Amino acid sequence: MHLRGRELSDARFQIDAVDGLRGLAVLLVFLSHTSNQGFFLLPFLNFAGIGKEGVYLFFLLSAFLLTLPFLEGGVNAFKKAPLINYCVRRFFRIYPLYIVFLIFCFFTGGHLWTLFSLPEPIGIPYILSIKQIYDHIFLIEGMGVSWSILVEFRFYFFLPLVAYLYAVIFKNNIYLSIVATLLLIIISQRIWPKDGSTLYPSVLGPYIGIFFLGCGIASLHYYSKTSSFMNQYSVRLVIDIIAVAAALGLVYIIPSVTNFIAGKNIPLDYYHKEYLLYGGLWSLVLFACVNVFGLFRRLFELSVLRYIGFISYSLYFFHTTSVALIKYFMPQIPFAAWWMLILGICISHVTWFYIERPTAKIRFVKS
Asked: Are 188 and 138 in contact (CB under 8 A)?
């Protein structure tokens, strides 16, 4: 199947399996939100509590994909025009749809209930005031799924500095890059130790180690493309086996799976503070997806996962709309979770086509 969606990113750094991983990430968020509210695609598929796992995968993929062009471009990637282009593309990749979603929340929260003569205001999915919209736009405070946008956009300001360290100062020396990545993670954990004081903090600090992992995997991937050792069949086989083990670990830390296997009764947010555990396990899966030709690469290159990956940013926002609509107006409809998914995909395809795709083409052109 021929899929169109590459115009949203630089074709030189488009990796089909990464598109599929992005699709998996948003599906994890969707499955968590539906399971949390008692709606299941299949009765035995209880994914309650894994939304953070999907968001952490998004963080890792963003850092990985945005670091690669800097490594490839070297010192030229840090000249004025490329850096301006980086900033312009980041802004127009995130903010147009983000603002549309915020305005949509404001309208539904303030007017939808009067149109349908409902007894009280409802938000589809949230009720937002003008003050809250201001806080979202200026990265002051997030609500619901938008907390991750604040975290990720803040890292966009740091990423060129990390990439400069790898590409220019270290000249893409893989050993120095690995050491630097580990040191950055250790330092960040000392500054922002996990304390679980709030469930959805919008600050970057506690999660920045995941982004550093993504930058490090990008450096390792860049090195592996020309490494004879990394391209040996036996080495790639070992990488694939390790990735399988990592995937099994990710499955185990789904709360319902942990409860079933270990006979425990852990709360849904039990693993939410394990940022680096998630980041490390997803890093192993990601590296296998982009560097070997085994199980994971074939799995995540499936057309259906890649398509969901293309619309994942829209679906990340608007699956909350489909869930809220069906839960409020048609909670007893058969196969409700499936209808939530179908409606979310339909809405997201429209917003992807009319908002994401056009604005993603905006570039800074040096005169």
From this structure: no
CB 265, CB 211: distance < 8 Å: no
Q: Does residue 160 have a cis bond before it (omega within 30 degrees)? A: no
Interval 84-125: pLDDT, tens: 999 999 999 999 999 999 999 888 877 776 666 666 667 778
Q: How far apart are CA 65 and CA 21, in angstroms?
A: 12
| Phi-psi category of residue 200: left, alpha or beta, with phi > 0 → left and psi -120 to 50 → alpha | beta
What's 18's DSSP letter? H
**Residues of the domain holding 223:** 6-360
Residue 54 lies in a domain: yes
For 326-353, the pLDDT digits (tens) are 998 898 999 999 999 999 999 999 999 9
Considering the domain boundaries, does residue 144 fall inside one?
yes
How far apart CA 184 and CA 159 sit, in angstroms, is 12
SS3 341: helix
**What is the DSSP secondary structure assignment for residue 12, as one 8-state letter?**
G
Residue 114 to residue 266: CA distance in whole angstroms: 41
Residue 108, pLDDT score: 84
Examine residue 313 and state whether it is found in any structural domain, yes or no: yes
Domain count, the chain: 1
pLDDT range class, residue 38, cuts 50, 70, 90: very high
